[in-house]
Specification:
The protein is an alpha+beta fold. It has four domains: 44 residues; 52 residues; 157 residues, Nucleotidyltransferase, domain 5, CATH 3.30.420.10; 63 residues, no CATH class. The chain has 13 helices and 13 strands. The strands form three sheets. The chain has a nine-stranded mixed sheet, sandwiched between helices. Strands 7-8 form a two-stranded antiparallel sheet. A hairpin with a 4-residue loop joins β9 and β10. The longest helix is centred in the C-terminal third of the chain and has 22 residues. The chain starts with a helix and ends with a strand.
Length: 408
């Protein structure tokens, strides 16, 4: 404001407005505007403050009295109306019946109600996603590592036929792997797991889906397949994701998509060996990148120097099943039904099968409260002592489609 006063004073002293604009570094139009506002009167009475060009009140804004009338009418309809309708449409109809000169549109009435907090609709609460591996306390706190594994099915390789890819990725660390094979059956998966863990070390948990190649056959109760027995023999706890539930396999599914985009769709592979070479090149480079991004990964145990799996040894340790209860609060695992809680219906539970204590413990899981995992129930359960049998592959075509059922 002081600069504008100086402009007017300089003009009144006889200096041209163009010279004043040049000396103060402003436009000629600015000097003309403030000289015109000052006029010929005393400069002490001139307001040199800026005036906003926008009007003080928008022409389309609803009158404050009409807004109050709309809010009062809503409360009136809620208490006294025979129908009980109190929405924007009902309020607009009432205003027309009462002879209101300018009835706002239904959308305008709705915005007025929303502005005054008079809408009945509840806004969906967006909660923060739980930490990775939230359903396992040790993984959630960063004290243990979880490896997820999956199989990419039936990729058509030119001149070869259909092939499959067994994939794996660590949740917190950089360990990754992808192994193309003609048949990703249980025998191949067991070999891939041993080779992977020899090079990377053993995690605390290994997560799978509910495929028979990982669990074993579903046609008999109390089946503990070769993949589960391998994990238990190495001190790795197998974890099985809940069927038809999103999020639990999200990390390995993301890696499957990344592998297909960067390896399978990016190059032409003349043979299975060429595909294996391209896959190894990608996984090694991707692991180096993850190692730079994740320097504080949980430690992994070394693989035993002289290890040979004994399929007839009684399984020891724990098996974890993530399950959804039914309408009675029960879960099904190992071919049996166990009652978690009759009041915990259609909700997630973590079932720990303790093979040493011969117990099944069910814990409550809630995404919005991941740290509260209360014990719901405990059941006595003992695996039957029987010989572990591996069903041989019947034909080459049958062995390619899926792994053969295992009895144990």
């Amino acid at each position: 404001m002081e600069r504008r006063l100086e402009w007017v004073q300089a003009v009144r002293r006889g200096e041209s407005m163009r010279a004043v604009a040049r000396r103060f570094g402003v436009t000629l139009r600015a000097v003309q505007r403030w000289v015109k506002r000052a006029g010929a009167g005393s400069l002490q009475t001139v307001d040199f403050a800026s005036r906003a060009k926008t009007p003080r009140r928008r022409a389309t804004k609803t009158e404050a009295g009409l807004e109050q009338q709309i809010c009062a009418l809503r409360k009136e309809l809620e208490k006294e109306s025979a129908l009980g309708f109190r929405g924007a449409q009902a309020i607009a109809e009432q205003l027309e019946q009462r002879g209101c000169a300018a009835v706002p549109s239904v959308r305008t009435i709705g915005r007025i109600l929303a502005r005054h907090g008079l809408l009945d609709g509840r806004v969906r609460v967006r909660r923060r996603a739980p930490a990775p591996g939230w359903y396992l306390p040790a993984v959630r706190e960063g004290r243990a590592e979880l490896d997820s594994f999956d199989v990419i099915e039936d990729l058509p390789l030119e001149g070869f036929g259909l092939c499959q890819v067994f994939t794996g990725r660590a949740l917190l660390g950089p360990a990754v792997g992808a192994w193309p094979a003609a048949h990703a059956n249980t025998t191949a998966i067991v070999e891939f797991l041993q080779a992977h863990w020899r090079g990377q070390g053993l995690p605390a948990y290994a997560q799978f889906d509910n495929d028979t190649r990982f669990q074993g056959g579903h046609n008999h109760p109390d089946v503990v397949g070769r993949v589960m027995r391998l994990c238990l023999a190495l001190g790795v706890t197998p974890v099985f994701a809940p069927p038809l539930q999103q999020g639990f396999q999200g990390m390995i599914e993301h890696f499957n998509g990344l592998w297909q985009q960067k390896v399978w769709q990016r190059f032409h592979h003349a043979s299975l060996a060429a595909l294996e070479t391209a896959s190894r090149r990608f996984t090694e480079a991707y692991q180096e990148r993850l190692a730079r991004q994740r320097p504080d990964a949980p430690p992994r145990r070394p693989f035993p120097a002289s290890f040979t799996p004994d399929w007839q040894a009684a399984p020891r340790g724990q098996i974890i099943y993530l399950r959804l209860t039914n309408g009675h609060g029960t879960v099904k695992l190992l071919g049996h039904e166990f009652l978690a809680d009759p009041l915990w219906q259609h909700r997630l539970v973590r079932c720990e099968v303790d093979l040493d204590a011969h117990q099944v413990r069910c814990y409550r899981l809630r995404r919005k409260e991941p740290t509260e995992q209360a014990l719901l129930s405990t059941h006595e359960h003992r695996l039957p002592a029987r010989r572990f049998l591996i069903a041989p592959a019947k034909t080459k075509a049958a062995s390619r489609a899926r792994a053969r059922p295992e009895l144990g």
